[in-house]
Amino acid sequence: MSQQSAVIYWVRRDLRLADNPAFTAAVQSGKPVLPVAINDQLQKDLGAAPKWRLGLGLEKFSAALDAIGSKLILRSGDPQQVLETLMRETGADYLVWNRIYETKAMARDSAIKQALKQRGIKVDSFGGAILFEPMSVETKTGGFYRVFTPFWNAVKSRDVTAPLPKVMQFKAPSDWPRTEILSDWNMAKAMGRGADVMRTHVQLGETAACSRLADFLQNDAAFYSQRRDIPAVQGTSGLAENLALGEISPRQCWHAGLRAHFEGNDGAEAFLRQLVWRDFAYHLMYHTPHIAHSNWKPGWDEFPWSRDEDNPKVQAWKQGRTGIRFVDAAMREMYVTGRMHNRGRMIVASYLTKHLMCHWRIGQKWFENCLIDWDCASNAMGWQWAAGSGPDAAPYFRIFNPETQLAKFDPDGTYQKRWIAEISSNPGKTAMSYFAAVPKSWKLKPDMVYPDPVIALPEGRQRALRAYQNRSF
Predict the structure, then answer these.
(1) Among 315, 333, 341, which Cα is nearest to 418's?
(2) Three-state secondary structure along the chain?
(3) What's the Rg (C-alpha) of the chain?
(4) Within the chain, which residue ranges are assigned CATH 3.40.50.620?
């Protein structure tokens, strides 16, 4: 490539052309723009489903760039070395990216920015992955928020910057640098046969995400507060999958939701509140990074959770064969679709950490491997909320009863029959898909007898309550 002044746009979890601050800044610089995605160690360490879904997203975004005359350059290795090599190859003297708030990513990005600036390279980073920068929201005493409702009250009336227009034109380089081939990254390798099953449930890319938002606000948002806890109906937006990879921005969701709210849509405010709940998770991760791997409340460090991941009861939980229908249906939904209804997440997390008395880290890591909408901050906060060790948790001694929860939120049995083949004489396609999605090594077949509970619910509840009574928090 001939030497010329260019700008590198480092593509991460921002797979969209609209409301993309870094890409917009690159275009507005007037320089040729080089979008590059880097397969570094943090990406290689992703769980099976998130990595596979990211691969699909990169493929889709690459096609979107092609449509406007651009290209996605793929390189592997240490990001700083990759970026410095590209700068030597292309003459680029400006680097931009959109910020990521996961602890390891922030440390990586800070080191890269400092090193390149010392060499005289201009480096700019931009917000856009969340609504409010974590350092911009403070209590009246200057600290960070530990409870969601005060956080919500502090930000709900703030102005949120309007989304940026879609990038449609840009200055291309005279020659494009070498690129790797996405298929060589083997991002689907760990998925095995489950990829074919799950692929039919993915809504991929920016166009699909925007359609998903519009459809939700037009048809479902008005009933959001009433339906969001009912797992058998389309009561939620489903946008977590797209937000996780930046195929749509939270600002786009916020402004669309706000318009719906002002137009009298009764459920829109509850939707906006969920967007801020996502922000709250990142607010906490930024200020208390240990939330991702340790008890947020240190008083839980000696709580007698089991860490034995080979425990047969844990294996039954992972396989969706605990004999508890709400738990099993939710786990099977995850294996088939890559997602799990929010009420199901609460139930399976409570069951693992309380009825089975297993450490929340076991569940957190399993979700990290299985969810296509995996989000580091939300996953960590959600598991600690359910376990009782985290911020803004329900009373730690609350133990959800999966049977009464199922009777309340699935009274006609639609959800459980949709996902558990063994309880039906004529199971449907979704229930049967589970057996095609899970590893062959599990040796599961639809004609197997549905198991008895691995632990009686009253027994599990009493054991957890005894553990609480013997601890001081």
Answers:
(1) 333
(2) CCCCCEEEEEECCCCCCCCCHHHHHHHHCCCCEEEEEEECHHHHCCCHHHHHHHHHHHHHHHHHHHHCCCCCEEEECCHHHHHHHHHHHHCEEEEEEECCCCHHHHHHHHHHHHHHHHCCCEEEEECCCCCCCHHHCCCCCCCCCCCHHHHHHHHCCCCCCCCCCCCCCCCCCCCCCCCCCHHHHCCCHHHCCHHHHHHCCCCCHHHHHHHHHHHHHHHHHHHHHHHCCCCCCCCCCCCHHHHHCCCCCHHHHHHHHHHHHHCCCCCHHHHHHHHHHHHHHHHHHHHCHHHHCCCCCHHHCCCCCECCCCCHHHHHHHHCCCCCHHHHHHHHHHHHHCCCCHHHHHHHHHHHHHHCCECHHHHHHHHHHHCCCCCHHHHHHHHHHHHCCCCCCCCCCCCCCHHHHHHHHCCCCHHHHHHCHHHCCCCCHHHHHHHHHCCHHHCCCCCCCCCCCCCCHHHHHHHHHHHHHCCCC
(3) 23
(4) 1-129
**Domain 1-129 grouped into CATH 2.60.40.10:** no
Q: Which two structure tokens, joined as six digits, stand for 201?
A: 């449930």
CA-to-CA separations, 72 to 33, 80, 176, 186, 462, in angstroms, rounded? 10, 18, 10, 17, 56
| Residue whose C-alpha is closest to residue 270's, from 231, 217, 321 | 217
- For 130-162+205-287, CATH number out of 3.30.360.10, 3.40.190.170, 1.25.40.80, 3.40.640.10 equals 1.25.40.80
Instruction: Read off the pLDDT of residues 92-134 as tens digits, 9 standing for 90 and up.
Output: 999 999 999 999 999 999 999 999 999 999 999 999 999 999 9
C-alpha dihedral, 333 to 339 to 342 to 343, nearest 10°: 0
The CA distance from 58 to 228, in Å, is 30
Q: How far apart are CA 96 and CA 125, in angstroms?
A: 6
Residues of the chain with pLDDT under 50: 1-3
Q: Which two tokens stand for residue 140?
A: 């009246």
Q: How would CATH label the architecture of 298-469?
A: Orthogonal Bundle (1.10)
Return the pLDDT at 123. Answer: 97
Q: Are 8 and 34 in contact (CB under 8 A)?
A: yes
Contact between 448 and 422 under an 8 Å Cβ cutoff? The reply is: yes
* Cα 111 from Cα 40, distance rounded (Å): 15
Specify the pLDDT at position 266: 85
Q: How many CB atoms lie within 10 A of CB 68?
A: 13
Alpha-carbon dihedral sign for residues 181, 89, 26, 240? positive
What token pair was written down for 159? 């102005």
Give bridge partners of residue 124 from the DSSP assignment: 96
